[in-house]
Amino acid sequence: MKSKIVLFFTIIVCFLMQSTVLHLISIGSITPNLLLILCVSMGLMRGRKSGLWTGFFCGLLVDLFYGSVFGFYALIYMYAGFLSGYAFRIYYDDDIKVPMLLTAIMDFLYNLAVYALQFLLRGRLGLGVYFTRIIVPEIFYTVFLTMIVYRVFHYINYHFMSPTRKESESIWVLK
């Protein structure tokens, strides 16, 4: 129960930071996606189910406050958390390279889904412009923020939430 309360407040704080503080440091109207970093981090550290629920509630907050279609962002963030949870058993979460790579992949897929379902269906076919001006800068900015924020999420996960696995449970440790 304690871990769910801590996760709830972490989602709220990340949403508030993404809505307020991160807009102040945006470069060319590109802001990093802190909620996506949280979904990927929880999927990596706690597994598919936790990544799925974290993504669902992060996306639900975005849908409630900013979305035009209810459930659109909830579905995208939910898939991002769930897919990143597949690396839970093969990755020991002290290293920063895998979260950075997985965040870049998930941010690319997130932006591609947003383009396909919000712009392409309305007849806007400028994928090259969208790719070079929106997707690539946001990926770099989000990966840069991942280097900073992932350690905070790792600390929160192991000090305030009940850990879901130990090093001996990793598949890389010989038994």
UniProtKB/TrEMBL annotation:
One of its Pfam families is: MreD
Keywords noted in UniProt: Cell membrane, Cell shape, Membrane, Transmembrane, Transmembrane helix
Where are the membrane-spanning stretches? 52-80, 101-121, 127-153
Tell me the membrane topology, using the record's own terms: Multi-pass membrane protein
Naming one, the record's GO cellular component terms include: plasma membrane
Q: Where is the protein localized?
A: Cell membrane
Protein origin, superkingdom: Bacteria
- Give the GO terms filed under biological process for this record: regulation of cell shape
InterPro entries given for it? Cell_shape_determin_MreD_prd, Cell_shape_determining_MreD
Coiled-coil region: none
- Tell me its family: Belongs to the MreD family.
- What is this protein called in UniProt? Rod shape-determining protein MreD
